[in-house]
Amino acid sequence: MTVLCKKLLGSAFALLIGTSFSMAQGRINEGDILKSLAGTGQAARAANLNLDVLRQDVEKRIQVEGTENAASPPPVLQALAKMPNLTVQIQFDFDSDWIRPASWETIGVIADALHHPLLLSDRFVVVGHTDAKGKRDYNLKLSERRAIAVSDMLISTFRIPPGRLIALGLGEEQLQDQSNPDAGVNRRVQLLNIGPR
Amino acid sequence: MRSSLTIAGAMVASILIGSPTVAQTIGYGEAIRGLTAACGADIEKHCKGIKPGGGAISVCLARNSSAISNGCAATFEAAFALLSRRAAAQDAAPQICAADAKRLCSNFRQGGARILRCLIRRDNIRKVSNQCNQAITDAGWR
What we know:
The structure holds 2 protein chains of 2 kinds. Chain A has 6 helices and 6 strands, in the order ββααααβαβαββ. Chain A is of the alpha+beta class. In chain A, strands 2-1-3-6-4-5 form a 6-stranded mixed sheet. The longest helix of chain A has 21 residues, at about 135-155. The model of chain B is unreliable at about 1-20 (pLDDT under 50). Chain B contains 7 helices and no strands. The termini of chain B are close together. Chain B is elongated. The interface of A and B includes residues 102, 107, 149, 158 and 196 of A.
């Protein structure tokens, strides 16, 4: 399982050259998450991120032929790509939103960080991504169900108040590795800090 | 106290001490690691598709108690108890710390963890009551 914890304050290109390390070698820890997410709500405010607009844009965009893997994603996706975030790989059952037990610890550690005083007042967008295999609209729905599953587990098992989490599916619309659209590294879940209410 | 007790250790401790007045808690990540280490394969086999939360996994494992591994059968209840204990500590802390908050942090606005951040300030550590300090630690809030 691969984990990427990094701040993406640079260009969207920075997304493509992220360093990754295997969960087998080092499991995710609360300190890394705090470093990635604490105090980054300002960036979302500055980007004036509107999730309703974002959802509508993405829904519209996937109906248009020839926009797959486009070199110039819509402004709202570009803004999202530049935001500081925590990227983790969560193992789901094939074609399902059931989170495999191997990834429960990762979600538990994320919960520990979200309960920490440094993050306790912030809200987060849980973003689900798929690789580019299969249909775009199907992937969009699947990634949304998976984002909901992660946020449901944070809420029901690890007691994060529901009002602090917003689930968002981006399907294959924001690939981590655009030169390898089917690669596993694209299947990931991101957390974005959007600051206090 | 961020205890590094293993689940087995916690079980032994709770058997020896009975019901300790100070709850030992560990983080959610550590608690769930104990569960998935012992029961991950059993959950994959017997509880696939059942979403965690509301005791659903615990119910599933109990229903399959004759089929699951001995290691899982011996530990899953204790593992879920550790999750509950952390949750209970988080619920209890505001009440336990109410007097300290009033005494030391009355000039802080409510909400946004402001009171908590006041209580865990370095210069307040010695002024906060032992019970409140322990409650904050048990809740995992430092």
